[in-house]
Design a protein that fits this description.
five-stranded antiparallel sheet, 5 strands
Length: 119
């Protein structure tokens, strides 16, 4: 039993040693939200503005539900491997945001900036 564990550990060490750094990176996501009393259009405009102010200007996409009562905004950061998502659900009375990335400290910092940019 110990021999098998030892061999498995050696094999894992070999795989980790030759694996590219990006393959070992994990994804970090910070999410939050609040109450929403306005329209889906106004909420999505606020999400886009918060994204634009913080560098989330690449691959921007706004997706409306079929009934046009809910929507999502998505964008990638222009300089960093980060993604921003904002969701607006007036019928449920809530909005939410998420910022994801591979560097914990930078992702948390950016989440705080995006949070502060939402009116």
């Amino acid at each position: 039993m110990k021999l098998r564990f030892w061999l498995t550990g050696q094999a894992l060490t070999a795989v980790v040693a030759i694996a590219p750094i990006s393959a070992m990176a994990g994804t970090i996501a910070y999410v939050g939200g609040g109450l929403l009393s306005g329209s889906v259009e106004a909420c999505l405009k606020n999400m886009k503005t918060a994204g634009d102010k913080n560098g989330f200007t690449e691959s921007q996409e706004t997706i409306m539900s079929d009934n046009k009562k809910e929507g999502d905004f998505h964008a990638d950061h222009k300089d960093s491997p980060m993604h921003f998502t904002g969701s607006c659900a007036p019928n449920a009375g809530v909005w939410s945001i998420g910022v994801s990335g591979i560097d914990n400290d930078k992702t948390f910092e950016m989440y705080g900036k995006v949070w502060k940019a939402i009116p």
